[in-house]
Amino acid sequence: MAYGVPVVAGASGRVKNVRDGMQDVALTDEASRNRIAGRE
Question: What would the pLDDT profile of 10-24 be if each residue is shown by its tens digit?
C-alpha cells in the first residue's frame, strides 16, 4: 500500500481499515463471517 496512488472505486470515500497479512476471501455466508469475527 502506498499513499497517493490513484484507484478505481465503486463509491467515493476513504479507506478506513486494511487487513494486512490476511488472505482475501469472500464473505458470502454466516460461516465465512464467523471465521473473521473479532478481527474485522
Answer: 888 887 777 777 777
